[in-house]
Amino acid sequence: MSVQAANDPKTLNHAVHLLQEGGLVIVPTETVYGMAVLADHGPAISRIYAIKGRSMDKALLAHIDGAPMAARLGQLSELAHALIAQFWPGPLTLIVPKHDNAAVHPLASGGLASIALRCPDHAFTTQLIRQLGQPILAPSANLAGAAPPVQVSDISNHITQHVDMVVDGGRCVGGQASTLLDLCSSPPKILRQGGISRKTLKEVCGELG
């Protein structure tokens, strides 16, 4: 396992290569550090669940680079587009109905017909997704139930010894997970409070569950 700086020009290509080969790469976002794999790579996804000690019935959210990639994965309503315009890139994850042909391995779906989508606001990880041309799955780089890491020194040895690379982007500015908003519910329902407040979301959504 190597630690490489996000601002090193060689780091991006190295991360792309590792992910394409089925590797696990810890990447920075504006919220917390995530453990990234390609969204359609089943063996790599299995490694994430095993390393984190995460239950296989808990879906992994997909990180994308904007609305066009999001639309290839899930059904975006008028409200979804309004939220995307207001809050992406940023700490808002939207749960929407998943397309049957979405390029996400079934292992990552937790048996659900929906998909969670997020567009991170971090230059390195955005460039990584764009260079790959496909989504990544990047749950927080911590053991299940532990606090998510906001800097590389927070990541446990158990995690680092099981991944292929750590990208050091410094301290995450947000320091807390994204807000998780379920648009499959009517009215929409906040499943996890994070970087965007309920009050702020209500300005766009109106009623919230």
Describe the 3D structure.
The chain is an alpha/beta fold and 209 residues long. It has one domain: DHBP synthase (Alpha-Beta Complex), CATH 3.90.870. It has 7 helices and 10 strands. A 10-stranded mixed β-sheet has the order 1-8-2-3-7-4-6-5-9-10, with helices on both faces. Helix 1 crosses helix 5. The chain is globular, with a radius of gyration of 16 Å.
Q: In percent, how helical is the residue content?
A: 25-40%
At the first level of CATH, the class is Alpha Beta
Q: What does the radius of gyration come to?
A: 16 Å
Count up the domains. Answer: 1
| Overall mean confidence score, pLDDT | 96
Beta strand %: 15-25%
User: Counting H and I runs of at least 4 residues, what is the number of helices?
Assistant: 7
Quick one: how many beta strands? 10
User: End-to-end distance, in Å?
Assistant: 43 Å
CATH topology: DHBP synthase
Say which CATH homologous superfamily is assigned: DHBP synthase
CATH arch. level architecture? Alpha-Beta Complex
